[in-house]
């Protein structure tokens, strides 16, 4: 059912994985924006956050998006939103345009195409900035590593555990590691949670 819906609207469903929010970056960024706006409007005890949701969502949808350079409301409805401070004539005249549907489709397709171009441009710029300071560690079979602790409960909990030994490479940045002392313990990990270890030889 959902796959058919995705197909009809041209959406590619990409799954995210736990403890790796980077795979769902757009949602994480949206949540960060919402948190900041809600925190600003809430009372001191933060108990009325749910009352602020309609205002915050309307504000977000009627503002120019930093990435797409488009107003979400206009991309959804094909017209500019009516804001509380906009002047409104008491006499409303509804005209019938026989070409309204074609004009609406043209506007929506144009704004969507422009938003897509802006997103791609922004992604390329972000990748370029990220790659400048990004390390590119190389690992091989039998290398010793520490693995980042996924869910530390306290500030002073250990950040990495191990040692683990790489026993299999599944992809360019995905490995199977096995604990050196607890031999049945194996994990599938990516390079971003690994720290290399070096054996001291006398």
From TrEMBL:
Residues 1-80 form the Integrase catalytic domain. Pfam families: rve_3. GO terms for biological process: DNA integration. It comes from the Eukaryota. SUPFAM superfamilies: Ribonuclease H-like. GO terms for molecular function: nucleic acid binding. Transmembrane segments: none annotated. InterPro entries: Integrase_cat-core, Retrovirus_Pol_polyprotein, RNaseH-like_sf, RNaseH_sf. This is Integrase catalytic domain-containing protein. It comes from Didymodactylos carnosus.
């Amino acid at each position: 059912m959902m796959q058919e819906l995705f197909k009809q609207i041209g959406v590619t469903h990409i799954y995210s994985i736990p403890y790796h929010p980077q795979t769902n970056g757009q949602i994480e960024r949206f949540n960060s924006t919402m948190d900041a706006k809600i925190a600003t409007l809430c009372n001191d005890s933060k108990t009325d956050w749910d009352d602020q949701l309609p205002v915050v969502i309307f504000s977000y949808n009627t503002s120019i998006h930093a990435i797409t350079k488009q107003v979400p409301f206009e991309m959804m409805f094909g017209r500019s939103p009516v804001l509380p401070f906009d002047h409104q004539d008491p006499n409303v005249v509804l005209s019938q345009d026989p070409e309204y549907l074609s004009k609406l489709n043209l506007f929506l397709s144009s704004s969507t195409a422009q938003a897509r171009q802006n997103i791609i441009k922004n992604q390329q710029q972000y990748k370029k900035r990220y790659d400048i300071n990004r390390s590119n560690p190389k690992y091989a079979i039998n290398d010793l590593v520490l693995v980042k602790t996924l869910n530390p409960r306290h500030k002073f909990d250990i950040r990495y555990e191990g040692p683990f030994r790489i026993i299999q490479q599944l992809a360019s940045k995905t490995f199977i590691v096995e604990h050196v002392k607890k031999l049945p313990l194996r994990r599938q990990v990516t390079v971003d949670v690994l720290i290399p270890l070096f054996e001291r030889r006398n």
